[in-house]
Design goal:
About 10% of the residues lie in helices and about 30% in strands. It is an alpha+beta fold. It is elongated and about 60 Å long. A hairpin with a 2-residue loop joins β2 and β3 (about 60-65). The chain has two domains: about 5-25 and about 135-205, SH3 type barrels (Roll), CATH 2.30.30; about 35-130, SH3 type barrels. Keywords: Repeat. InterPro entries: Mbt (IPR004092), PcG_chromatin_remod_factors (IPR050548).
Amino acid sequence: PFNWDQYLARTRSEAAHWTFFRQTPAPPYNGFKVGMKLEVTDPRIVDTVCVGTVVGVLGSRIRVRFDGTDASNDVWHVVDSNEIHPCGWCEKNGGMLQPPMGFKSDPGNYHKFISKSLADAELAPGRLFKKEPPAPERNFFQKGMKLEATDPKNHALICVASVGDVQGDKIRIDFDGYLGSDYWARFDSRSIFPARWCNFTGHPLQPPGRY
């Protein structure tokens, strides 16, 4: 298994401190089970909340499928994300559930579809949803610091990475050992994690290329 202490010593680098991240000091408990229903925002459409089903549980993260769509639209969230809510949250807050992008049936029948979908389903209990941690007051990252980051091409993967550059509120994520795989993220992104986060949560970590 990948050993952060050995890797940091070998590369003579330092890990970014956990306070630089929008994550809790102790990773949140994940009590979700596959098949549970919840409400989830569709990141591709502004202010759109849809019904979703938990289709994967990994460490402190869940994989959610928008009901009425296929796997290509799935989203991953840490369980303390403010993008996921118990069923009924949207209506309680004066909103209205909307069909997600990629909905396979007639959007006009979405509410009928949802009623049927929720009829005998197991709804995720409210106690499983946690308050999202606050963002750090500013971008504290420095070039060369090590961290763990989600692969934007495959959100199931979290990989060993470095801060390649810093510009304003953004940092460039470089995956160690993989050339040309870099991407830019905000310093308060929920898709970047302190070193050893995967180890603490029981989530697999992709080691550097040629490790």
